[in-house]
């Protein structure tokens, strides 16, 4: 019975192949539907991972693509789409899949023209290769477009913007709200406020005084598009729409009828920031924007609506015909668009009236200057309607500037466009006349032009007027002469030109025709700026010189070299003319080979230039030229000759570079086919430079060969040496091609095709090896060696490592090609065993390669190849008796650190080696040792590799120490040193400078002598380890003084040592705390599990802070609140438990300090350093409480930990390796020893230094002789000095006698202390001293009666200091256990049970 209603179940038609356990179900739906399904499943896995990794941007991107594919899949599976719509949707789907696969790092899918996936078995190799190239190029272009848009535009919601590089801004002028009372001109343009410049032409609207457009037919139809905007324009930080309002009427608004009319006067300006619209953040063509005036009027301005459109003018007219039609005004960008299209003929000259300065002459006030601009030819004829003030209107013959009232230095910044026929440019010039305008009409009519200026549009050398500012000369004189072009055209037009003409002679030019041409004779000035946007005119003299090379043949070489410096836009404008000139030079100047090389370089430059995305549309122009216009026959020979010369000098990078650049272009390849360069040498070179197609051609040939072809080919070789040479070259070439990764990683089909063909070829050649080169007389060591290295390189190639791929890709490869690693791996095994007696020749060289094979994570392959190691051991034993496998250890270290190998490999390697070794008569013992050695190494290396990715540097340090200790034990100093420096780096990163120095000292211990010139590598003052620094500096001083005789270095070293001594006595050094940490539970890694470590804390580190750091390192661990030893339940638990408590270091004073009055500053160092033993005590009550003696069942558990190494060392922690167990009686003995030694020390100090204060002595004596304490003797008597205790523990008789002896020994020490106390007596201390004397008298009487009398032997002036011999070593029962044993916990081993006294 089903659990889903029948209406929810849909049965899909499918075909079932290979019915049974491994059947394959193939849906009957369209192949595209199947591809969509598998793609969505594959993307879903990646999508989930992006979510987990919190990669929000990529996650949303994949989400958007996935939703699109799901929607399209539904449409396809519905079966309702018409054929044409289905075909169009299929293109969108395949494009989206291919794009998504690339950005997600998945494999490239190759398709035919209809979007169907190509079957590699049904497709030729060359076609497959070309399909990969085409698909890869198409996707790469799409990705670049996406990147550009994401970075520059942020237009993610507008898919139409994905495939364009040119944009247009649509402006709909709705209304102008301002009652000026006179006519007005509104000039709208785009402006970059950061660069302070206009970037477009003006859009002109003429507005009538009646508040309506001057042309009534334009009412509600005032629209314009600003075209040719590129991506670089759209990423400008800011961009504004500026509207300049010019009033056309009287000089003043209040003027009447008798005043001058028709004057252009400035009125106001309106500015709107349109950055968000340009960036695509605002996109609403219906929204009307109000742009207020920046003037004295409020609530005045204009209303517009705006929209950014993708595409050039033709494209927007097609795609947005409802907005842009033939009547829409077109305002072009003042400059070329990002993409220059062939056939885009443009010849626009933009002229900006910038500023002027005019002398007021006889007038009392500055002039009201009006500039009139016109275009004339060399005969003075006026060019009609050549000047365009703004888009939307026809041109005018004369342009009159704005008039500023009584301004001496007017600044206009008015830009107009000059459009004249290209052939007329060379004959034309711009004329500017200057006239004072009076507000009174009668006076104005009498005003004549007071000056003129001009500028020629073409220079004498044939280049167009340069872009930029030009300071024109203002000529004054006869008005008729001003209008006569023949009079003024012979004069210089700019101040720069006149300076150049005056410079050689040093004299002023003579006056001509009543003009004043010199800069000294007039104070007037006038400045303009020009910008040429022409597809037919050039401002580059070098390019012009090349085009006109026949008239200037002596500069051909110079112009050819300079061509590579010409801006690309200039060259593409004259592409065909430039190519004609280059080939004509090559043909007509054939006697000079220098030109051939320069022309070749120029061709490389031009062809590379066409590859730029900006000029990509000129590709058809180049192709058309090659097909239809190129006919220079001799050029084939010359180009081939130059190419051969470049290739022949390939070792010279300067020669090689142009050749490589030439061949890297696919366009060059197609071009050369049309230039008929078919010689064998050239085509071979071509194939070599384009390695992909070369390999594809070779693969295609090998793919068509069967067994008979291979046999026939081998039989064609006449001699054995020919076969050797062929196989040697083939093996080397195959290995080289495999190592170089000829194809991209995502060309999965091409890579697998190549691998399958290569594998078949290699397997064919193995039979040749076995047939011709295996016997004793014909064996070829190098040939076999090359084979093995080729086979290993093939097997370990990244494209065949299936476990690194997704499950979907893995299944796809297994189904189509199988696991080729197994096939080649089994062949390697067979070829190895075929070697027979020759095997020894490959040992140890083949140990590393075979290890690489066995590390491949394929179980069957590992089982087949791991036994080769035993075979090598057996072979080496049989031939030499050695079992030296150092190379295996070195290689294993490298491979595991590189990420190869796993726990399964370790288990299988150990298992197989042990099985084979134990069966061997002579290798059973040594082989087993070797197997366990390798297994142990693998365990350490795997732990190290795993923990290296851990955030905890402490764990990484521990694993590093484990590995370096392994290598030290095995005497592999090379690897040992490498790990030492890894450990040093870890310490340095954590600022553990002391431990880093100790790590370096381990390397120093390996050297025969220290080669350092200063002790800076040793623990220094910054680490406050001055005692260690002194010790090492003594060793260094000996070398300076007695070996290298560097007395200057010795002097500096001794000065440093002096500062170390001074620091010891004067500087304050905080003492670190030590912590015992136990890691319990199976949840910890093996190097921590159920072990105890002693940690050296940082300065001033509290236990709370240390605990927090531990729990941060192990967030899932549970903190144990008790210091009691954990039970087996906790140890075997899968969880993690951490136990932490403070331990006290046991001072290990150097022998030379004992029995001497050592200052406390020195002793303080040894209380926390050079220590290896640590104690921890806790009180425990055992049994019922005795009311008469509460101490009878109060015991102390004291654990003494001994670490593997002393602190400080190469780590801040060390594992506990040894513990000592102390009984309660022994603890009492130890306590008495310490007390006696303390009394002896303080008495001795007072004997030697009478100035010491008496208070410490008073406190010590009072604490011992006071009746409330009485030395604790009563407690000892009750606990140990009873018949019951001796009956239960008769073996402790000697220890009890020793304890009694120590009690008796304390009496003379106390007597001497009280004597000294009496000598230093003060009035305040007299009562205390009397009481001490009385108490001591009673105590002494009791002790001497029970335990005897001991007398001290004194010498003149001093007391013989008792060397209180520690008896712990003779009476303590010691046991040493490893901390990884079952009792390895605080308080289990090293347990001390003592009376609480």
Automatic annotation (TrEMBL):
GO terms for biological process: cell migration; myoblast fusion; small GTPase-mediated signal transduction. One of its GO terms (molecular function) is small GTPase binding. Residues 896-1352 form the DOCKER domain. GO terms for cellular component: cytoplasm; plasma membrane. Residues 346-533 form the C2 DOCK-type domain. InterPro entries: C2_DOCK-type_domain (IPR027007), C2_domain_sf (IPR035892), DOCK (IPR026791), DOCK_C_lobe_A (IPR043161), DOCK_C_lobe_C (IPR043162), DOCK_N (IPR032376), DOCK_N_sub1 (IPR042455), DOCKER_dom (IPR027357). It is found in: Cytoplasm. Keywords: Cytoplasm, Guanine-nucleotide releasing factor, Phosphoprotein. Belongs to the DOCK family. This is Dedicator of cytokinesis 5. It comes from Athene cunicularia (Burrowing owl).
């Amino acid at each position: 019975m089903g659990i889903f209603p029948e209406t929810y179940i849909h049965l899909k038609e499918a075909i079932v192949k290979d019915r049974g356990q491994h059947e394959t179900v193939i849906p009957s739906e369209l192949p595209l539907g199947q591809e969509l399904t598998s793609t969505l499943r594959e993307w879903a896995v990646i999508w989930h991972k992006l979510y987990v990794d919190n990669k929000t941007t990529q996650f949303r991107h994949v989400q958007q693509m996935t939703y699109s594919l799901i929607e399209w899949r539904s449409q396809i599976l519905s079966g309702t789409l018409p054929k044409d719509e289905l075909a169009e949707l299929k293109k969108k789907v395949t494009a989206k899949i291919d794009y998504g696969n690339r950005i997600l790092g998945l494999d490239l899918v190759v398709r035919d023209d209809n979007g169907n996936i190509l079957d590699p078995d049904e497709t030729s190799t060359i076609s497959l290769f070309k399909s990969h190239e085409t698909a890869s190029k198409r996707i790469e272009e799409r990705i670049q477009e996406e990147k550009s848009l994401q970075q520059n535009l942020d237009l993610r919601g507008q898919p139409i913007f994905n495939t364009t590089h040119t944009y247009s801004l649509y402006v709909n002028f709705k209304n102008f709200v301002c009652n000026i009372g006179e006519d007005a001109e509104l000039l709208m343009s785009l402006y970059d406020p950061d660069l302070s410049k206009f970037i477009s032409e003006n859009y002109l609207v003429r507005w009538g005084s009646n508040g309506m457009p001057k042309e009534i037919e334009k009412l509600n139809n005032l629209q314009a598009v600003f075209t040719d905007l590129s991506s670089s324009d759209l990423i400008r930080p800011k961009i504004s729409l500026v509207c300049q309002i010019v009033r056309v009427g009287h000089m003043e608004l209040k003027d009447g009828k008798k005043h001058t009319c028709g004057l252009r006067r400035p009125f106001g300006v309106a500015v709107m920031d349109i950055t968000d619209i340009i960036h695509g953040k605002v996109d609403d063509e219906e929204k009307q924007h109000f742009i207020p005036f920046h003037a004295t009027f409020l609530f005045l301005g204009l209303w517009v609506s705006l929209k950014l459109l993708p595409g050039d003018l033709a494209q927007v007219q097609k795609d947005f015909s409802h907005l842009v039609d033939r009547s829409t005004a077109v305002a072009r960008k003042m400059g070329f668009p990002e993409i220059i299209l062939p056939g885009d003929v443009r010849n626009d000259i933009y002229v900006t009236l910038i500023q002027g300065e005019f002398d007021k002459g006889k007038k009392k006030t500055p002039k009201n200057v009006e500039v009139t601009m016109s275009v004339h030819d060399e005969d003075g004829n006026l060019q009609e309607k050549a000047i365009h003030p703004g888009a939307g209107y026809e041109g005018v013959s004369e342009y009159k500037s704005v008039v500023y009232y009584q301004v001496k230095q007017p600044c206009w910044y008015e830009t107009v466009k000059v459009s004249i026929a290209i052939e007329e440019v060379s004959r034309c010039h711009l004329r500017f006349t200057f006239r004072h305008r009076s507000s009174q009409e009668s006076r104005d009519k009498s005003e004549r032009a007071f000056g003129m200026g001009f500028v020629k549009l073409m220079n004498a050398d044939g280049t167009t007027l340069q872009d930029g500012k030009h300071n024109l000369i203002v000529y004054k004189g006869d008005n008729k002469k001003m209008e006569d072009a023949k009079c003024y055209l012979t004069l210089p037009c700019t101040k720069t030109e006149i300076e150049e003409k005056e410079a050689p002679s040093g004299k002023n030019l003579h006056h001509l025709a009543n003009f004043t041409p010199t800069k000294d004779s007039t104070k007037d000035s006038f400045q303009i700026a020009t910008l040429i946007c022409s597809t037919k005119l050039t401002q580059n003299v070098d390019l012009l010189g090349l085009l006109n090379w026949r008239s200037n043949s002596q500069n051909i070489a110079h112009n050819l070299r300079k061509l590579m410096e010409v801006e690309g836009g200039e060259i593409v404008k004259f592409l065909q003319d430039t190519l004609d000139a280059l080939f004509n030079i090559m043909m007509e100047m054939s006697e000079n080979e220098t030109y051939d090389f320069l022309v070749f370089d120029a061709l490389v430059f031009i062809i590379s230039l066409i590859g730029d995305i900006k000029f990509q549309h000129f590709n058809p122009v180049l192709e058309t030229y090659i097909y239809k216009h190129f006919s220079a026959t001799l050029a084939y020979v010359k180009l081939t000759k130059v190419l051969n010369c470049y290739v022949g000098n390939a070792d010279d990078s300067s020669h090689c570079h142009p050749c490589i650049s030439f061949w890297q272009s696919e366009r060059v390849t197609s071009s050369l086919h049309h230039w008929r360069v078919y010689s064998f040498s050239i085509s071979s070179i071509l194939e070599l430079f384009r390695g992909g197609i070369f390999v594809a051609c070779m693969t295609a040939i090998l793919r068509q060969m069967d067994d008979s072809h291979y046999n026939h080919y081998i039989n064609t070789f006449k001699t054995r040496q020919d076969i050797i040479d062929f196989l040697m070259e083939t093996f080397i070439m195959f290995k080289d091609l495999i190592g170089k990764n000829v194809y991209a990683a995502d060309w999965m089909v091409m890579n697998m095709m190549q691998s399958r063909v290569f594998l078949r070829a290699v397997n064919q050649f193995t039979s040749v090896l076995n047939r011709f080169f295996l016997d004793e007389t014909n064996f070829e060591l190098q040939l076999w060696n090359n084979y093995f290295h080729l086979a290993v390189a093939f097997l370990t190639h990244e494209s065949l490592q299936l476990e690194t791929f997704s499950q979907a890709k893995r299944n796809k490869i297994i189904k189509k090609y199988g696991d080729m690693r197994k096939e080649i791996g089994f062949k390697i095994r067979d070829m190895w065993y075929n070697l027979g007696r020759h095997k020894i020749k490959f040992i140890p060289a083949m140990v590393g390669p075979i290890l690489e094979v066995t590390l491949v994570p394929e179980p069957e392959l590992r089982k087949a190849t791991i036994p080769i190691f035993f075979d090598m051991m057996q072979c080496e034993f049989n031939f030499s008796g050695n079992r030296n496998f150092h190379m295996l250890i070195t290689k294993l270290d490298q491979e595991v650190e590189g990420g190869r190998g796993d726990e399964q490999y370790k288990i299988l390697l150990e298992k197989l080696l042990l099985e084979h070794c134990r069966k061997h008569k002579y290798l059973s013992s040594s082989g087993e040792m070797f197997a366990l050695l390798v297994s142990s190494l693998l365990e350490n290396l795997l732990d190290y590799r795993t923990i290296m990715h851990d955030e905890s540097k402490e764990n990484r340090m521990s694993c590093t120490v484990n590995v370096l200790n392994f290598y030290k034990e095995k005497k592999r100093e090379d690897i040992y040193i490498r790990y030492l420096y890894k450990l040093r780096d870890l310490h340095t990163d954590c600022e553990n400078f002391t431990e880093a120095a100790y790590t370096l000292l381990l390397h120093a211990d390996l050297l025969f002598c220290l080669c350092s010139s200063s002790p800076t590598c040793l623990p220094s003052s910054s680490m406050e380890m001055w005692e260690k620094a002194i010790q090492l500096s003594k060793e260094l001083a000996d070398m300076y003084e007695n070996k290298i005789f560097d007395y200057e270095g010795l002097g500096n070293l001794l000065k440093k040592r002096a500062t170390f001594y001074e620091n010891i006595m004067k500087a304050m050094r905080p003492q670190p705390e030590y912590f015992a940490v136990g890691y319990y539970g199976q949840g910890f890694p093996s190097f921590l599990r159920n072990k105890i470590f002693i940690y050296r804390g940082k300065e001033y580190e509290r236990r709370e802070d240390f605990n927090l750091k531990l729990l941060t390192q192990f967030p899932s661990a549970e903190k144990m609140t008790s210091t009691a030893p954990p039970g087996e339940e906790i140890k075997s638990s899968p969880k993690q438990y951490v136990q932490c408590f403070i331990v006290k270091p046991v001072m290990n004073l150097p022998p030379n300090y004992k029995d001497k009055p050592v200052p406390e500053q020195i002793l303080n160092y040894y209380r926390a350093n050079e220590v290896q033993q640590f104690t921890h005590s806790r009180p425990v009550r055992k049994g019922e409480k005795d009311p008469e003696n509460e101490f009878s069942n109060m015991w102390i558990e004291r654990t003494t930990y001994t670490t593997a190494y002393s602190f400080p060392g190469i780590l801040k922690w060390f594992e506990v390796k040894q513990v000592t167990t102390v009984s309660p009686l022994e603890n009492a003995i130890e306590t008495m020893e310490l007390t006696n030694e303390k009394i002896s020390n303080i008495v001795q100090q007072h004997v030697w230094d009478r100035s010491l204060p008496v208070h410490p002595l008073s406190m010590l004596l009072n604490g011992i002789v006071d009746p409330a304490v009485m030395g604790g003797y009563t407690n000892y008597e009750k606990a140990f000095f009873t018949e019951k205790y001796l009956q239960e523990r008769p073996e402790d008789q000697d220890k009890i006698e020793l304890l009694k002896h120590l009690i008796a020994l304390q009496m003379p020490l106390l007597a001497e202390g009280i004597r000294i106390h009496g000598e230093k007596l003060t009035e305040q201390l007299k009562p205390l001293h009397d009481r001490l004397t009385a108490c001591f008298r009673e105590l002494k009487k009791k002790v001497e009666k029970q335990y005897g009398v001991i007398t001290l032997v004194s010498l003149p002036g001093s007391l013989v200091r008792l060397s209180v011999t520690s008896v712990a070593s003779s009476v303590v029962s010691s046991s040493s256990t490893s901390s990884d044993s079952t009792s390895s916990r605080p308080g289990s081993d090293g347990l001390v049970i003592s009376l609480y006294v």
